[in-house]
Amino acid sequence: MTDSSDSSFAQRTTQNSADTEGATDAAETSGTDSSALTDQERALVSAVEAALPSSIAELSDLVRIPSVSWAAFDPANVAASAEAVAGLARATGVFESVDILRAATPSGELGQPAVLATRAARNGRPTVLLYAHHDVQPPGDDAAWESLPFEPTVRGDRLYGRGAADDKAGVESHLAAIRALTATAGDDFDLGLVLFIEGEEEFGSRSFANFLEANRDRLAADVIVVADSDNWDTETPSLTISLRGNVTFKLTVSTLAHASHSGMFGGAVPDAMLAAFRLLASFHDENGSVAVVGLTGREIEAPEYTEETLRAEAGLLDGVKPIGEGSILSRLWSKPTVTVTGIDAPSVANASNTLIPSVAVRVSARIAPGQDSQQAFEALEAHVRAHTPFGAHVEITEVDTGSPFLVDTSGWAVTAAKDAMRDAWGAEPVEAGIGGSIPFIADLVRVFPEAQILVTGVEDPHTRAHSPNESLHLGVFKRAITAEALLLLRLNSRTGNS
Known about the structure:
By secondary structure, this protein is an alpha+beta fold. It contains 15 helices and 18 strands. Helix 2 packs across helix 15, helix 3 runs antiparallel to helix 5 and helix 3 crosses helix 15. It is globular.
């Protein structure tokens, strides 16, 4: 564990004129209901609070490592991040082994390094696997950030930086909860622990299935806590119970063997840009609902969520209308989407008067719970073939699929997790769906069918994960650590698995 005093915390997080005093005050505003806690649990809450400056400083150090796992970025940074996480895991003093491991992807190359730390359960106690990932999304354009993406900066009650929330805060919340458990119960506790910090979640978890198979015995657990989701708001915790799946692919549309003069041939020759735009527009109807035959969705019962809330949380501009049909949360949680997330084409600055011969786009679809991801890809592929205009040539490559997931909420671990959230936050937890995807959870269920899955997180609706100005609400961070630490402490006293 990094030795971080209050003064070193201030030095690290006051770079770029961060207001650490205000941030610490915000983080210390907690809804924890101490009257519902035992003396030992109150001591645990105090341990989380006392260590919070050090936890934020450690998180800031991790954020400074630009651990982008995408193929176009330097893998040395992901390796450095894995080394840093492994060092923090070893410093807790609770694990019998801490290793940095890699597994092969389906195509044969090695995936990015993951950290695996284990401690065997004793005296009939359960084993808990704590999952997060230390890799991050690319930062995008630095100019779109109010502070540099890999220089953690506190403004108000939020810590800004790429990975500050998704998901290095998940990594640090696990470490901080373990340290609070040790500070309260001692380092001779009986609970079994597995810490699994993945290194390529943002790049599709391509070696994940092989990693599970290669390390099945070390990863086996009764409860799996996946700290990679969000909360209902900054004052209300969520337990994620449904996740959409995903299908992504690169779509290349070509109409010409070479670029041609737009004045001489325009009007008779279709350029690739025109063909691509016509094809992409066919994915949606006039209301913005997905118009791909074979992609399924459904209406669901969900908490109240207004259009005004959607506008505030998503950042809809004045006059821009929401798309789709049905309740807003059914559109976000249980219906499909198709989004173009990238395009390779000449920039405006480099545009010339030519007909473009070929255009490539990245298509990202979210799949509703209950649909098979391979079936969804086949529906999308069939749609592309049926709606390609002008006889243009299309190529679909770099296909990735991930299955949707529905959590079984009937197990004792769900009850225990919600109780810990309620006591740590002082608010009733919400069982929520998530529009995003965590495809590897389906692999966890396949390999460990008896394990109970808890999908938690440290994000909130204003986190802006994957976007410029990603941030972590420090009050949420503290309450998430407290909830997980309470859960671990209580499971340390639990015997049996029923």
